[in-house]
Amino acid sequence: MIVAWLLLYLLISVGCIYPANYAEQKINEAYDTILRVDKVTAEMIPALCDYVIFSENGEKIGGDLSEQYEQIAWNVAKYGNASGKYFYKVIVRENEYVVLQYRLTPQYHSAFLREHFIGPQNVMSIMSVIGAVAIIIIPSIRFGKRIKKQMQPVLDAIRQIKDQNLEYETSCSGIKEFDDCLSAIDDMRDALRESLEKQWKTEQEKKQQMGWDYFLQKLWLKNMVEVLNFQILKIQVGRG
Question: Dihedral through CA 199, CA 202, CA 206, CA 207, nearest 10?
């Protein structure tokens, strides 16, 4: 914001932009000339001013003022009041009124820019708004990047757990709250690892038990077969 207004001051200093009171200053310089000259011409009218000349009864005699402002200018000449974005200066001459219309805002030196481009004051306002937004957004973006960087260890830990890697080593983030979160994730990882190891051991014991049971069943069947064979042989010998 400060830079925008410093730029405006610089442009005024080098003459690229007229200051807000430039037209008023020029009117004061030309006042006596317009008041005493025999006939007012366009060359006598100060820069940045439009004008109109009225007779005593309000008839327009000359000037380049837009028609939509003529009635306002006449009211100013007769009653001294006006409202709006323009200011008026009335020079009362013999049998006529010269009314000058001007603005108390910075103006471009270039007539082309004055006609086709927004005013310097509006440009400065827009730049100020852009600057204010930048002041808010840029630090926010930098802060967001910093937080993301410091939060990366937490995200890495979560991703490792998701990938079922429970042997990873966590690193500090530098922020107490994030480090507390990492500590909680470590505790959760350890608890999960212990649970999985316990479950694995239980399954191994079940497998071993099932293997032993199978062995006993197989041994029992073998013994039963041998007993049956012996009984069959005994019966055959008795018959013989």
Answer: 70
A 10 A CB-CB count for 198 gives 10
Q: Phi/psi of residue 159, each to 5°?
A: -65, -40
Which residues are within 8 A (CB) of 131 and not within 5 positions of it... i.e. 6 or more apart? 1, 3, 4
Could you tell me the pLDDT band of residue 211, with boundaries at 50, 70 and 90? low
Contacts for 158-162: CB closer than 8 Å, 24+ residues apart: 158/185, 161/185, 161/188, 161/189, 161/192
Q: Fill in the amino acid letter for 138.
A: I
Whether pLDDT at 120 is above 80: no
CB 74 within 8 A of CB 88: no
pTM for this structure? 0.53
* Predicted pLDDT at 235: 66
